[in-house]
Design a protein that fits this description.
The protein is of the alpha+beta class and 157 residues long. It folds into two domains: 74 residues, Beta-grasp domain (Ubiquitin-like (UB roll)); 66 residues, DNA polymerase, domain 1 (Orthogonal Bundle). Helix content is 32%, strand content 16%. The protein has a five-stranded mixed β-sheet with strand order 2-1-5-3-4, sandwiched between helices. Strand 1 and strand 2 form a beta hairpin.
Length: 157
């Protein structure tokens, strides 16, 4: 067992975990934040995407001990000027970027990371940034439109 300290959404979390505990399980079971979803456990779907020190990562591919001392942002940690929603979250609402919603937290986090690095991405850049995230409902056009909306209305904020 190892004690890890991870700052999640601005709040320091400290828990003793088995060395093999995946970051996604730490977030969901120890921090009790269930916005990031477990979709495949093989890094193929992106439903577990979170920001690690601002970079989009698939939390099913990292161990909690690898995030010790780091800063993690989950979808619950986003906020903004759109009645508490970030521009990306509001873009998904405005442009109907979700259907069943299972992929949405991971998509939102990947889009947030993209817009943090590139506030005015082209359609090609948006699609490239979302390559590792799968929407089983095939709502990609609306997701791309959601990112465009966010870029035009405040970016990653």
């Amino acid at each position: 067992m190892t004690t890890v300290r991870i700052t999640i959404n601005g709040a320091e979390q400290q828990h003793e975990v088995e060395d093999r505990t995946l970051l996604i399980h730490y977030i969901r079971e120890n921090a009790r934040l269930t916005g990031a979803h477990i979709g495949c456990d093989t890094s193929n779907c992106g439903a577990c995407t979170v920001l690690l020190n601002g970079e989009a990562v698939k939390s099913c591919t990292l161990l909690a001990v690898q995030a010790d001392g780091e800063h993690v942002t989950t979808v619950e940690g986003l906020s903004g000027r759109f009645n508490g929603l970030s521009a990306v979250q509001e873009g998904f609402r405005q442009e109907h970027g979700l259907q069943c919603g299972y992929c949405t937290p991971g998509m939102v986090m990947a889009c947030t990371a993209l817009l943090s690095e590139n506030p005015q991405p082209t359609e090609h850049e948006i699609r490239h940034a979302l390559e590792g995230n799968i929407c089983r409902c095939t709502g990609y056009e609306m997701i791309v439109n959601s990112v465009r909306w966010a870029a035009e209305n405040g970016g990653a904020q």
